[in-house]
Structure formats: C-alpha cells, structure tokens
Amino acid sequence: MTTPAPTSHAFDRAINLTAAGTNLFRGEVDDSFQNMVGPFGGVTAATLLNGALQHPERIGEPVSLTVNFAGPVQLGAFELEAIPLRTNRSTQHWLLLQKQGGEVVTSGTAFFATRRETWSEQQHEMPTAPAADSLPQLVRSERNWFRNYDFRYVSGLFDPSRSDTIEDADSETLLWTRDHPARPLDFASLTALGDVFAPRIFHRRQRFTPAGTVSLTHYFHADTEQLARAGDRHVLGHARATRMHNNYSDQVAHLWSDDGQLLLTTTQVAYFKE
C-alpha cells in the first residue's frame, strides 16, 4: 500500500481521498482545477488512479489506465469505488467508479503489475527541443487549472489571434510542462500531465469550439524509480490528432523525461461541435 501523499500542494489536495469502507473512498471537488465543464480531466483521472494506489490490497505499479468521462463532475463531495476485480501472482485488474448523487460520473479500469527486469528497448525517441529553462513560461488565466501547470511551448501554441489560414494550421504541439509549483513526479501527477494538451480541434482550426475528452487511455512505461529520477523537472510532451470526423477526434501523445526516457503514451477521443 502506498502512503498517501502530503496535501500541502494543490494537486495533492485535489486528489486526496479518505477511506470510507471496503473498496470505498470519499473526496471533495473544489474549483482549483476547474475547466470549461467540471474539473480538468487529468486531475479526475489521477483521482481515480489514486483510489487503486491507496487501496490496501494493491500490488505492483500501474501499467495502464482507461478513464471514461460519463457526465460532468460537479463541485462538492463524491464517492470513489476502487474494486480489485482479480489479483494474480504478479498482475491485478481494477474497476474504478466515481459517483455523485448516486450516479456514476466517471468510470475507469486499471491494470497493475509487478514489473520484472527484462530486455528493454525504446523505439520512439524524444524530439529535439531547446531546454525548458531557455523558453518563457506561458502564463494562462482562462481556466483555473492552468495556474497549476508550468507550460513552455516549443511549437504548436494555440493562438486564435494568429493570422494563419485553416490550411496553414495543424494539430501538433510540442511543449515542456510540469506541476506549478514544482512537485516530484509520481504516477498520479504523470496521469494528470498526460491530459494537459488542449483539444486538437483548437489547434487545427485555431479557434475555440465546444470540445471535451470522452475517454482516455494511458500506458505507463516508467516505474517508481524512473519517476523518482525525473524529480520535479519538466517533461517534454508531444501531441497530435490522426483524424477528426463527424463530431469526434482522436489524440495520440507522449511524455519524456528530460534525459530522453519515454514515460507515458496516451490516446484519447474527444467530441467537438461546430
């Protein structure tokens, strides 16, 4: 079982859970990570994962996490069911259900495993990018959750004031990011960082449109020791879409530590409206 993280940082307060019974936790949503509709999806996903991380029956470390955003998460209290569906010798499967008012607002599944040292190879190399400290920090205030992250864009900044035509824009973003104030990286914060990219439709069309994540899946490539080595330094993130069609768009993204180690691969599907 993981010792609960200290709650002095805004992120730790946001994902904080209190045990309330067998497979049951309680938490509270405040406005510190508020987004367009409900809280920032990354912190919601991290909260679900935290239920498994804190569970007394948990074994191993997260290898994958899928989160489905079934409805808006409201400010106030919630219950989180973290149910170990099956535990084998070195693997464990989880069902995660966040509820408000007796209704499921977010559901998830997670796969944990005890990793063993094997032959390893990284085939997707980190893109070339200037050092994070050489780039200006982008200060954004449109949404509450922005103030909790340090964004340093290499390319692909969404800017609706640009004069590009739609044909000149694309859906790619390359940026350095980390928690603000800086916080040592762990599985919960990596989960949230995997969702910091704006909807790809914003970048492709260079204008706001109603949009939001419906489902995301994270694949964790790092273990606890590798995350500890990353410390509280920036991670490099790259995201792009592969197709936007009939109200839905995908996104494929990767996060690397500053020494070039791939930490996370993530995919998601988001809705968008005209």
* CATH topology heading: Porin
Number of strands: 13
SSE class: mainly beta
Rg value: 18 Å
Based on the structure given, which CATH architecture is correct? Answer: Beta Barrel
Query: CA-to-CA gap between the ends?
Result: 46 Å
Unreliable stretches (pLDDT < 50, length at least 5) are: 1-6
CATH class: Mainly Beta
Domain Acyl-CoA thioesterase-like C-terminal: 129-271
Domain Acyl-CoA thioesterase-like N-terminal HotDog: 36-112
Protein name: Acyl-CoA thioesterase
Pfam family, one: 4HBT_3
Overall description:
This protein has a single domain, classed as Porin (Beta Barrel). The chain is 14% helix and 38% strand. It contains five helices and 13 strands. It has helices at 10-14, 41-54, 187-193, 200-205, 224-230; strands at 18-21, 24-29, 61-69, 76-87, 91-100, 103-113, 149-155, 173-179, 211-220, 235-240, 244-245, 248-256, 262-272. Strands 1, 2, 3, 4, 5, 6, 7, 8, 9, 10, 11, 12 and 13 form a 13-stranded antiparallel β-sheet that branches. Helix 2 packs antiparallel against helix 3 (187-193). It comes from Halopseudomonas pachastrellae. This is Acyl-CoA thioesterase.
